[in-house]
Structure formats: structure tokens, C-alpha cells
Design goal:
Length: 696
């Protein structure tokens, strides 16, 4: 540390304005020259007297400053981004950081500021901006004057993505030195997404454009094999020309987030395989859902079904009510009938598979639908379709749909008895955990009660899950998966009472909407779910299950770290847990039965586009500021020496640290050089001598 020092300097503090003083000086000089030219007696003494008077008016003072020298600042920027996790770069950077810090701390009049940079893991899907080393440096120096900076030393692989364009500002803040991890002339293969949609329509083709590039390869190959996986399952493979765009056509299979993984075969001897894969998240949006509603006979609840389905803009409804069975013969001429013939063949043979959901509302066998068409519906369900039966009294009679081929898929078998007494529908224990019914009372007050229904068809649940019950805990609402499809049975036709507000009513619209959307495979209504969301620097995991047993979720991050997290049970069939995030990328969640993916940060960050250690981005800025570049693996740390600001700042074997010699004034003293008394005595002396000289 430098000691404090005293520095003195001569200054003037004139009693008159400087302009007047200059005018007096000119007049005095003119008089003196004139007297000397005329050889007048006492010219020299008069000139000395005038000079003394001018000096008195100029008031010379001696200034003495007590100066305390300030320490210079050396900034160390440590790159800890994802590209530094390749190979031994992280270990090399850490060892160099420790050694560098020890060396600089041993230099006098030098203070060390350190800052590390990491990739953020809190952003949602999107493109990250890469390594912001200069932003980190700016933050470290925001309260420090640029003329106190001795140098900035970056420990990095050279992949810096915010190199400033304003080079003049950087020159004032000292040299920029770079210590590079990695090795020169590395080779790597990179798969890059050129164009990808963020959303698409389910079951409609989408186009993706990718590009494969090989860097640092002396003998490049022409093509490489590309594999496409969707939600973890392999879908296709193709050959891609190296360096050329490849267009892929993929199809979304479900609503919500669809994750695509596109990977390329590795290159022999390449730096890393981390950037051999690209991840794309596309939000699936369903087009118009085709719903067929067949009402067996008019009743009070028929309009309720129609209004609920028509109010959903994503639903396209086809509704038929069978008012006139074929066997009815009342003598009315055909030409006078205004009813539309039921297009049986079109609906149940030609266009059956176009529908996403078929609803039978109080339907009974009346000879309209032959068994062959009902068998088509049964097959349609098993192959992935959806069927909802809202039963009426006829379900307990021989005219029941259960007496048709639909019995293969219907989970409730009628006993022949119909309850006709008032009861309040209740949610079963399973129903309290199922997403379709678990939240029906979540927003209601504890004192709120649902209104009563007055009819229920007794049935025996042969399969599925009973979510709601009526009198004597008999099944009221049954949901079942049949083959690849889904079936729901509502064993009452009195849900309309809730819609009319009878005895306070109930959540009729919400219940019927949830049943319909579960049948159409809405992801949010799946009874078994495993998903996670990013909240700050944590991953919040949520598991929905009908099983109340405690679950443990295994989370795998892109770096290969595996964490087991025990979830805590919450209400409504939900188990939750929180896990700190350590890296960005695609995380995999598994609980033994389910597997899901969650994107943390950008799926294809700029940080991994070109991961080779390189001087391309930093060479120019190092040259402009006088800094040096050195490879740690082959050259090690350089020597460090203090340099004058205007001198050379680096060489092949040393880096310079500017000696700025900044100081602050801690003391101040001001002393007049010519006191008024001394000046007066001198002036009188000159007058007396001049008088004596002229009197001789």
C-alpha cells in the first residue's frame, strides 16, 4: 500500500480581476521601457517598485496537498455457463481462478473484484441470449470510476454473446485479458432448429426446418441420420445433408404441450453430444370438436345439453331428437310431415369416425337404429371414440340400450328398478380425487347445499370408477376406459333441476362440461397426471392420482443428475413437491407409472449452438484495448506486471495491470508567499532608495 504524500505548488489569488491586472502590467511595462529609453534617473528602481506592486496585487500563494493514493481495481469474470461444463473446462477454470486470485492479491495497491456468470433457469420456453460476460462486468463496475480499473480478466471458453460495439468506452476502462479453457481446433456437430411453430392443430401436419453443421472437421461427411421422438416415443428417422436445411413434417397427437426431440448421430471424436439434439415444444390446439347428440324423446333436460354444448366455441354440435319412430302409423300424408328424416346411414356408418363424442340422451330402442349400427358405435368406442349415455327410465326396461351391442362398452348394468324419491347427489371417495368431480365444491361455501334430484335408475357398476352416488350409495355417475376409448354413464335425467336453480340448484353446466371434456381426452382432466411448472429457481411438481398412497418422483435433468423427491398429499387427489433447479433444458419426471417432460429455460439455448472454445468473438476487442489472450491448457497463467496507462498492456508471456496513480486529497494548506507587511516595507525601501538616488 502506498503511503500518504505531500505535494506543494505555487498559485496566484489576485486582488483584482485578471483582466485589470493585465492592463496594469502593460501600462507599467510601457512606463518602464519609456524611462529606460530616455535614460531617466532611477528607472530601474521605479521598474522594480512597479513590479513589486503588481506582485502584491497578484497575491502568490503556496498550496500544499496531503494525498492518499487509491487502490486500482482488477476485475475477474468467471464463466460458469453451460458451455463451461464440457469436458474438463469447469475444473480448469476453477483452478485458474484460484491461482489468479492469489497472485493478484499479492500485488500492492490492487483490489480484486470477482463476478461469476451462469445461465438463468427461470425463463419459460424461448431463446436464451447466451453468455452475458460484459453485462456482468458492467454490474461489477457500476459504482467504480473507469480510471481506477487496472484490467479485466475473463476466464472463459470464448463463447461470449454480448461483446459491445462501442469500443471507445472500453478503452477507458483498462485492458481486457482472456484466459481460455478448452483447446484450439476442437470439432463438434451441432443440430439447430431453423424454424418451428409454437402451436398447431391436433391431427394436422406441421412443418419443422432443421440444419446440421459440422465444425472443425477436415474430412466432412455428406449426410447423417436424424431421429425424431414425440413425447419420448420414436416416431420417424431420416437422412439429413450436412450444412443444408431439412424439412420435417410432424403431427400433434393431443392437446396441450407436445414435446419433440430431434437428434442426429454423433460425430467421431466430437467435443460433446449435448448439442446433437434439439427440443421443440408445440402447444396442441384442437380444431372444432364434432359432437353428435341423439335425444330419444323430448324432456326438460334436453335443452340443457344443447345449451351447454352450443356455448362452447370449440364444439360443433349435430343434434337429432327422434320424435316419430318408423312404426308409427297415424295416417298423416308424408308430404305434410315437416320432420327431417333421421340420416341413420350417414351418421352411423359413413361419418361415424368423424365424431369426437356421441351422446345418447334418454334414448330407448324404438327400431330406429338397427343392431349393426349400434355394433359400429361399440367398435368406434374401442378404437378410441367417446360415448356418453344420460339414462332415462327406459334404461331399466327391455328397451334399454344395455340390451344392445352397446352392453360391450357400458359399465353400468340396470337392475330394473327406478328410484323416484328426493335425494342429493353425492361425490364418492374416488370422485373426491378425480378431476371431473373433485373441484365441483371447491369454490362453494361450506353452508351451500345442492338441490335434490328425484329420479335415478339403479344399476350395478361392472367396471370403471363411480364418481357420484345417489340413494343407498348406488352409482349415479360412472366413467370407464373401454379399449382405446372412453365411456360415461349418468344414471339420471334430472340434472336439469340444478340448471333451473331448484332448491339452490347445483353445478350442472360445470359437471356436464367436465364429463364431456374428459371423454374427449382433455389433458387437464386426466385422473392420472404428472406435471411440473417452473416457479422462480424451483420446479414445482404436481401429481394427480386416484391412489392416495404417497408417491416418489424421479427427476432427471439434462446434465444426467437424478433426484428422487417424495411428494406430500394435498386435497382433491393432488400430491405436490418442490425441487431446486440446477440447470436449464428438458427435465424428465417419472413416478413408476407415468412419465412426463417439462422445459426449463430455453430448450435450444444459444449457449450450445457453437460450443467450441474459440477466439473469434474476443480477438478484436482484446486487440483494441491492448489485452492479451492465453490458452490455459497449453500455456498456463501469464506473468502480471504494473504498467503505465499509455504503455503496452500485454505480450506473449505477460498481462499488464494499469497503474493509474489515482488519489484523494485528505489535507490542504494555503500560505501566502508575500505578506502585506513585508510588501509594504519593500515598497517603502524602494521609494526611499529612489528618492535618495534622484537627489544626488
Amino acid at each position: 500500500m502506498r503511503e500518504e504524500s505531500f505535494v506543494s505548488s505555487l498559485d496566484f489569488s489576485p486582488y483584482l480581476p485578471i483582466d485589470w491586472l493585465l492592463v496594469l502590467a502593460v501600462i507599467c511595462m510601457a512606463i518602464a521601457f519609456f524611462a529606460i529609453w530616455r535614460r531617466g534617473r532611477g528607472s530601474v528602481l521605479r521598474s522594480a517598485l512597479m513590479a513589486l506592486l503588481l506582485l502584491m496585487l497578484a497575491n502568490p500563494v503556496l498550496l500544499t496537498e496531503k494525498r492518499k493514493f487509491l487502490e486500482d481495481i482488477a476485475v475477474i469474470v468467471l464463466d460458469e455457463t453451460n458451455s463451461q461444463k464440457i469436458g474438463q473446462r469447469s475444473e480448469t477454470a476453477s483452478a485458474a481462478y484460484d491461482d489468479l486470485k492469489n497472485r493478484l492479491e499479492a500485488i500492492e495497491n490492487l483490489k480484486i473484484e470477482t463476478v461469476s456468470i451462469k445461465n438463468e433457469t427461470t425463463s419459460l420456453l424461448g431463446e436464451e441470449d447466451g453468455t452475458h460476460a460484459f453485462d456482468a462486468r458492467k454490474g461489477a463496475l457500476k459504482n467504480i470510476s473507469p480510471d481506477r480499473v487496472a484490467a479485466t480478466i475473463f476466464i472463459t471458453d470464448g463463447q461470449i454473446h454480448d461483446v459491445p460495439e462501442n469500443e471507445n468506452a472500453l478503452r477507458k476502462a483498462g485492458p481486457l485479458h482472456f484466459l481460455l479453457t478448452g483447446e484450439p481446433n476442437e470439432k463438434d456437430r451441432v443440430l439447430r432448429v431453423v424454424k418451428a411453430p409454437t402451436f398447431g392443430i391436433v391431427d394436422q401436419p406441421l412443418q419443422f426446418i432443421i440444419k446440421i453443421e459440422d465444425f472443425g472437421v477436415d474430412d466432412p461427411v455428406q449426410a447423417a441420420r436424424v431421429t425424431i421422438r414425440q413425447d419420448g416415443e420414436e416416431k420417424a428417422a431420416d437422412l439429413a445433408q450436412i450444412g443444408s436445411d431439412l424439412t420435417l413434417t410432424l403431427t400433434l397427437t393431443h392437446g396441450g404441450a407436445n414435446f419433440f426431440e430431434i437428434s442426429v448421430d454423433p460425430l467421431n471424436g466430437e467435443l460433446t453430444e449435448k448439442n446433437n439434439s434439439a427440443y421443440i415444444s408445440v402447444n396442441g390446439i384442437r380444431d372444432k370438436l364434432q359432437v353428435l347428440l341423439v335425444s330419444g324423446e323430448p324432456h326438460m333436460g334436453e335443452r340443457g345439453w344443447r345449451n351447454i354444448l352450443k356455448s362452447d366455441p370449440s364444439v360443433e354440435l349435430v343434434h337429432f331428437t327422434i320424435l316419430r319412430p318408423p312404426e308409427k302409423q297415424d295416417g298423416t300424408p308424408i308430404t305434410e310431415l315437416s320432420l327431417i328424416p333421421f340420416p341413420i346411414r350417414d351418421l352411423f356408418e359413413k361419418k361415424l369416425n368423424d365424431f369426437d363424442l356421441i351422446i345418447f340422451d334418454r334414448y330407448r330402442r324404438r327400431g330406429v337404429l338397427p343392431s349393426s349400427y349400434l355394433h359400429n358405435i361399440s367398435r368406434y368406442v374401442k378404437e378410441g371414440g367417446a360415448l356418453l349415455e344420460a339414462a332415462g327410465p327406459a334404461f331399466a326396461t327391455p328397451l334399454s340400450l344395455y340390451q344392445t351391442p352397446l352392453s360391450e362398452v357400458l359399465p353400468g348394468r340396470p337392475t330394473g328398478y327406478v328410484f323416484s324419491e328426493g335425494y342429493i347427489p353425492a361425490i364418492s371417495d374416488i370422485g373426491k380425487r378425480h378431476p371431473v368431480t373433485s373441484l365441483l365444491k371447491a369454490n362453494a361455501k361450506e353452508t351451500d347445499r345442492w338441490g335434490r334430484w328425484f329420479r335415478m335408475i339403479e344399476a350395478e357398476a361392472l367396471g370403471g370408477e363411480t364418481l357420484m352416488t345417489g340413494p343407498s350409495d348406488q352409482p349415479l355417475l360412472i366413467l370407464e376406459r373401454s379399449g382405446d376409448g372412453r365411456v360415461a354413464q349418468l344414471l339420471s335425467d334430472h340434472a336439469w333441476l340444478w340448471g333451473r336453480g331448484f332448491e339452490g340448484g347445483g353445478p350442472q353446466s360445470e359437471l356436464l362440461r367436465r364429463i364431456s371434456h374428459w371423454l374427449m381426452k382433455e389433458p387437464e382432466l386426466e385422473e392420472e397426471q404428472l406435471k411440473a411448472v417452473v416457479a422462480g429457481n424451483s420446479l414445482q411438481i404436481r401429481r394427480n392420482s386416484l391412489d392416495s398412497a404417497p408417491a416418489t418422483v424421479t427427476v432427471s435433468d439434462p446434465d444426467g443428475n437424478v433426484t428422487r423427491l417424495a411428494l406430500s398429499d394435498e386435497k382433491n387427489g393432488t400430491q405436490t413437491g418442490t425441487l431446486p433447479l440446477r440447470t436449464s433444458g428438458l427435465h424428465t419426471l417419472e413416478d413408476g407409472q407415468q412419465k412426463s417432460l417439462v422445459a426449463v429455460g430455453a430448450l435450444n439455448p444459444k449457449e450450445l449452438h457453437d460450443i467450441r472454445a474459440s477466439t473469434d468473438k474476443i480477438a478484436e476487442i482484446a486487440k483494441i484495448t491492448g489485452g492479451g489472450i492465453r490458452w490455459l491448457e497449453t500455456e498456463g497463467l501469464p506473468d502480471f506486471r504494473r504498467t503505465k496507462p499509455d504503455n503496452r498492456q500485454s505480450a506473449d508471456y505477460w498481462f499488464g495491470l494499469r497503474d493509474n496513480e489515482n488519489y484523494e486529497i485528505t489535507g490542504y494548506n494555503r500560505q501566502a508567499m508575500l505578506s502585506p507587511l513585508v510588501a509594504l516595507i519593500l515598497a517603502l525601501a524602494f521609494l526611499c532608495i529612489g528618492w535618495w538616488r534622484e537627489g544626488r
